[in-house]
Amino acid sequence: MDGRGNSRQGEPWNARGKQKWEPLQSGQGSARERAREIDLLVNHFKVKFVPNKEIIQYKVDIIGAPSQGVSGSRTNMSMAVKKYIMNKFIEDNLRNKSLMYDGTDNLYSPMELEQEDFIVEPSRGKKYRVKLERVASSSVTEFLGNESGHVTVKQEFLQKLDAAVKEHLRRNYIIVGQGFYKNPSCLDYGTVAENGFSMSLRRTAQGLNLIVDYSITAFYVEIPVLKYLEANGIRMPLDVERALKGLQVTVKNRQPGQKFTVVGLTKHVTKEIKFNTDEGGEDTSIVDYYKKLPCLELIKKPGEQNFVQMEFCQICEGQRVVEDNLNSEHEKALKRVVSLPERREKIVQIIKSEQGPSGGGPYLAGFEMTLHPEMTQVTGRVLDAPVLMLGNKKGTKKKLTPGNDKRQWNMTRENKKTVFDGKILNNWGIIHFSKIPNKQMDVVNKFRDKIVRRFIEVGINVKQKPVIFEDVEEDILNNVVKLKKELQKIHSERNNELEILICIVDSSKHPGFKNLKFICEIEIGLTTQCCLFHQSVKKCANLYHRNDPCFKKNQNFASQYLTNFALEVNVKLGGSNVALLQSHSNQIPCIDDSDVVYFGADVNHPRNHDQEFPSIAAVVMSINWPDSNRYVFRIQRQKHRQEMISKLGDMCKELLQEYKETNNKRLPKNVIFFRNGIGDWQFDEVRKKELEALKDAFMELETDYNPKLTFIIAQKRHHTRLFRKSGDQNVPSGTVVDSAEIVYPSEINFYLCSHHNELGTSKVTHYYVLCNEIGFSSEKLQTLIYHLCFTSATRTKPVSIVPPVYYADLAACRGRLYVEALKGLSSSDSDSSLSNCNSSFNILLRGEKSMFFI
Question: d(Cα 844, Cα 633) in Å, to the nearest integer?
Fold first, then answer.
């Protein structure tokens, strides 16, 4: 096997028929020589340490002593309890020593500690015995691993060191994930905005870096539940449940400090809820005990009820407000744009602050570790835009190279450009789910005329105008029986031949939205395209007079919105909007004239409090080489919050079989697989499970089928930010960095900013190659991925992450929507509800090839 993971001619396979995965090497090439260079600053701060400094690792064992003395037994305690006990232990016994506790079972010290039993009493009447056991002693470089070795060799220790470095910051900040927040500013409505930062440790080819980024987010203040609902004008039961579900609350008449998670509202009104008091064995109504108010259902043990009236509950402070629960005023306050120079300055201020990462007193100094106070300087490159293929009014194909800084292209009547493959639209309709039915028909009619005109301009062959169905009350979205009956009636009125139904809704956050999608796409087989009345339809209709300032503002918005709307509809009809010329001219590097498919995979997880919901895995695959702009997909439920895709092999086999059936019984010889949502610590697990599953799937499909595979991790959840060394603008589209100062040693990996962003700070994507049988060099792979970002089905500009990953994310989210809809549809228990989910998914996957999920 060569240095890029390729199997040499005649090289034997191992016993299982698998190749060994070896480190990959970044190469040099003509692409690097052609790209223009750009000087950058990166928010990586080098960690300096004494290589031979000794670090001693101790295992921490906490034994409960429920009564008194030192006797007791080991208990399954939460991480929060462990941290509380250890903080008390360190404060009482090791206050002046330099220690790093990782929050679990490990303590690191630069000096020997006494290995004896310590008695800790964190609160009156509760005692614990803490025992330290010496595990290992190594120099810093031994813990961090050989600089030329594989990055995952010491990944476990790096995780622990990362946690330990953060421990001392917990005393001064609110912690959410990897973020540290303080200095609140009031947002009203029971929330505050907290300024803070996020940080993480990362190994690079030139040592250890601390990545620090500035952030701001919204948190709940400590406030009674009823007061919070009143302040936000939340009254309807569905709105109440959506606002409170997942929040932690305290209850007045329960143990002080005890927190409960809200899982929903009770199914019955308060006066109908009864419980047994064990006083005479009779059921007693809650109304006899409390006022006539709705009850919250809190997390409980199996077989138990835990219903509490709202007036006794108080929202716990320090909980982050999820995006869905932000009102418009919150969103405006949080989206106040911080200029790039200001953001850069804030990051440096955080590094130098006494309460920041380097202000930990003895925590870092005791280990003789220091942080370089300035950002890392690197030289990036700006890649050229690709040559694209579009259509024109004459029905032929037209070449286009986006040449401006934004790398955008227009598809308006003046530019005479159309989509690559426009479809015919014969039978379609529009329906408005309105709070006030039939009062806005003039707006809907104007919107219809606008979209028909734009559809024709972009290349959709509209044979007739859509039917505008009578408005329906918005509340029908919550009534599954009535909604299904209404949609079936609409479909039957058009002889069950509706190609697409435009659904106008008043709110994207309406809880009945999932019912609409599930019934149309799963039970009826009807493709939908939804749009918002106030935010989109009304602006596009633009009923203002031409002299009104709002007229021009709405006109500018409508032009781009209508184009994007038309692009989505064309794709859902089976068309495609843009293609890469290099695919058609066999110019993809390292690829001959044989077929190539692009896979994308992602897993959508439920929130932590949704213990009964499964995770949803999705895999998409390009189906039409060489255009490679249409995708088919599979979705599959799996265990709660499981990241590894358990049935990846089966899903990929089905997709490849579909490719074979669609392409004259021909299978692709090259597979490029993009995996989203994987953390650094999971790379080895992906190699062992998902890469092996793919290889097995290839051999099971056909005995002699052995395509070349390149497997790439795409990461968006990181804190690396790129800044121009001079200038106040974002880095341009096409900026790529693979400098040793910020990337992993040995493997091909790089940061790519593929999109243009005028506001805020561009978030780059980190691409990491786990397997490279095709043999791409780093530069050629960077170019290919950047060019693919121009082929998004719904945009006339490059997107921020490679489209197969984006489509997999959308497919997984759609699967989540179906699960939630099934949960509400079923009157039985959750298990039977979720078991129906698989059969519904199978119906969808066997009978639908449209990209309706975008």
Answer: 10
DSSP per-residue letters across 675-695:
EES--GGGHHHHIIIIIHHHH
Of residues 73 and 433, more confidently modeled: 433
Cβ neighbourhood burial of 84 (10 Å; 0-12, 13-18, 19+): middle
CA–CA gap between residue 363 and residue 490 (Å, rounded): 68
Q: Show the tokens assigned to 852.
A: 């309706």
Q: Do the beta carbons of residue 814 and residue 517 sit within 8 Å?
A: yes
Pairwise CA distance, residues 702 & 660, whole Å: 11
Helix orientation angle between 648-662 and 692-701, rounded to the nearest 10 degrees: 40
454 touches 565 (CB < 8 A)? yes
Q: Percent of the chain scored above 70 by pLDDT? A: 81
Task: Specify the pLDDT at position 18.
Answer: 42
Q: Of 291-300, 404-413, 758-767, 794-803, give the lowest mean pLDDT range.
A: 291-300
What spatial distance separates the first Cα and last Cα of the chain, rounded to whole Å? 40
Structure tokens that stand for 539 in this block: 């602006």
**114 CB contacts (<8 Å, ≥6 apart)?**
132
Structure tokens at 163: 């946690």
Mean pLDDT estimate for the chain: 82
SS3 85: helix
Residue 572 DSSP SS3: helix
What residue type is assigned to position 432 of the chain?
Answer: H
Q: DSSP character for 764?
A: -
Burial 28-67 (b: 16+ CB within 10 A, else e): eeebbeebeebebbbbbbbbebeeeebbbbbebebbbbee
Reported for 687-695, long-range contacts at CB under 8 A and 24+ positions apart, including other chains, are 687/21, 687/770, 687/771, 689/644, 690/601, 690/644, 690/645, 690/648, 691/21, 691/770, 691/771, 692/16, 692/18, 693/645, 693/648, 693/649, 693/652, 694/648, 694/649, 694/652, 695/17, 695/18
User: Do β-strands 765-772 and 472-473 pair in parallel, antiparallel, or remain unpaired?
Assistant: unpaired
774/594 Cα distance (integer angstroms): 12
Helix (H) or strand (E) holding 582: helix 581-584
Structure confidence at residue 332 (pLDDT):
63
Residue 618 and residue 808 in contact, taking contact as beta carbons nearer than 8 Å: yes
Tokens of 740: 């040793």
405 and 446 Cβ atoms separated by less than 8 Å: no
Contacts of 297 (CB under 8 A, 6+ apart): 262, 263, 264, 265, 266, 306, 307
Span of 180-184, 243-247, 727-731 with lowest mean pLDDT: 180-184
Transcribe 587-623 into DSSP letters: -STT--SS-EEEEEEEEE---TT-TTSPEEEEEEEE-
CB 837 within 8 A of CB 828: no
Q: What phi and psi, each to the nearest 5 degrees, are found at residue 500?
A: -160, 145
Tokens of 15: 């016993």
Q: Which two tokens stand for residue 531?
A: 């749009």
**Per-residue pLDDT, 43:** 96
Which of 801, 798, 781 is CA-nearest to residue 790? 798
pLDDT tens sequence across 579-598: 998 766 556 777 777 899 99
Radius of gyration of the chain (CA): 29
Q: Is the pLDDT of residue 835 over 50?
A: no
Question: 57-86 pLDDT, tens per residue?
Answer: 899 988 875 554 444 555 567 777 787 888
Worst-scoring range by mean pLDDT, 16-20, 218-222, 477-481?
Answer: 16-20
User: Alpha-carbon distance 451 to 564, whole Å?
Assistant: 11
Contact 446, 541 (CB under 8 A): yes
CA angle centred on 815, ends 810 and 817, rounded to 5°: 95
The per-residue pLDDT for range 334-365, each reduced to its tens digit, is 666 577 888 899 999 988 887 777 765 455 67
CA distance 36 to 820: 49
Cα 484 to Cα 120, 370, 477, 530, 684: the distances in Å are 62, 64, 9, 17, 47
